[in-house]
Specification:
CATH class: Mainly Beta
Number of strands: 10
Bound molecules: copper (II) ion
CATH superfamily: PCu(A)C copper chaperone
Order of helices and strands: HEEEEEEEEEE
Structural class: mainly beta
Distance between the termini: 58 Å
Helix content: 10-25%
Length: 151
């Protein structure tokens, strides 16, 4: 008879997890993408990408991948001691934000189909561990562009 209990508990656990994922209540990330841009690349086949993801919810999330029609592949990078390192995901903490910016975390758009020009818009789709994907249209800015500081 002791065998039944762990299975029942596991089933209850799965049910609770499913309910939590579906409910509109507590424990959910609430993400907003803002301030995105792609500096016009100097290279033919590679560009950087920046965007800020704000989490107004009360649960953490993670940016896990980015897709765009412009690039064959997008990788997530951190910068430590002036050295870029590819990572599998970037944290978007509850009540906080993930900031991609020059000299820090950034996207690398690789295998570009063509070189984007200033004034163009690039559509990025951000994929997360928990939240639905977010599609964001970001401008191509001059190579030397620095975004104004704002939230
Ligand atoms: Cu990089």
């Amino acid at each position: 008879m002791n065998h039944a209990r762990p299975a029942a508990l596991a089933a209850a656990g799965i049910l609770l997890t499913a309910l939590a994922a579906c409910s509109g209540g507590d424990g959910k990330p609430e993400l907003h993408a803002l301030n995105g841009f792609v500096p016009q690349p100097l290279m033919e086949d590679m560009a950087a990408g920046y965007v800020t993801v704000r989490n107004d919810g009360d649960a953490d999330d993670e940016l896990t991948s980015v897709t765009t029609a412009l690039a064959g592949k997008v990788t997530l990078h951190t910068t430590e001691n002036n050295t870029m390192k590819q990572v599998k995901q970037l944290d978007v903490p509850a009540g906080g934000k993930l900031e991609l910016a020059r000299g820090g975390n950034h996207l690398m758009l690789e295998k570009l189909g063509r070189k984007p020009k200033v004034g163009e818009k690039v559509t990025l789709t951000l994929h997360f561990a928990r939240s639905e994907p977010i599609k964001v249209e970001v401008p191509v800015e001059p190579t030397t562009y620095r975004p104004p500081k704002k939230d």
